[in-house]
Amino acid sequence: MIVMVFSSGVARFLRNPMNWAVDFSSFLFAWACFFAMDIAWRENKMMSVDLFVKRLPAKVQRVIRIVMLLIILAFCVYMIIWGAQLTWTQRFRKFQGMPNFSYAWVTLAVPVGAALLARSTVQKIIKEFSNKVVKEAK
């Protein structure tokens, strides 16, 4: 992606522009962002501020985690619905540098990425409840 944008800039400087390179880079960037977001969420690499939550009792922390996960899941469902509508409305829009490539392929990253994030969130919710069952069994 970086090489494409850089080479596009050099080609433009040499008066032989590659119009498709920046458009294709924006396509790759959209997909990379949503895939990276899911990977970071799955591996607990997202930044969070838990200064106050860490000082609460363990049971309250667990309730807050479950509520947070449910809010995130609701947002993911909203993003899937909204992203599907966005993709549908963009289906006839074309890139300037790539006239045969629909912009819907870029916007499709929104519902697909949100679906991946929802899947990871459901896995976290299941893990949260299964941890409770394991702790109660001991």
From TrEMBL:
Q: What's the short name of a Pfam family annotated to this entry? A: DctQ
Per UniProt, the keywords (alphabetical) are: Cell inner membrane, Cell membrane, Membrane, Transmembrane, Transmembrane helix, Transport
- Show the GO cellular component annotation of the record: plasma membrane
Q: Any idea where the Tripartite ATP-independent periplasmic transporters DctQ component domain is? A: 1-129
Q: Which residues cross the membrane?
A: 20-41, 62-82, 102-122
Q: Which GO terms describe its molecular function?
A: transmembrane transporter activity
| GO terms, biological process | C4-dicarboxylate transport
**Source taxon at top rank:** Bacteria
* PANTHER family per record: 2,3-DIKETO-L-GULONATE TRAP TRANSPORTER SMALL PERMEASE PROTEIN YIAM
Q: Name the family.
A: Belongs to the TRAP transporter small permease family.
* Record-given protein name: TRAP transporter small permease
Naturally occurring in which organism (per UniProt): Pseudothermotoga hypogea
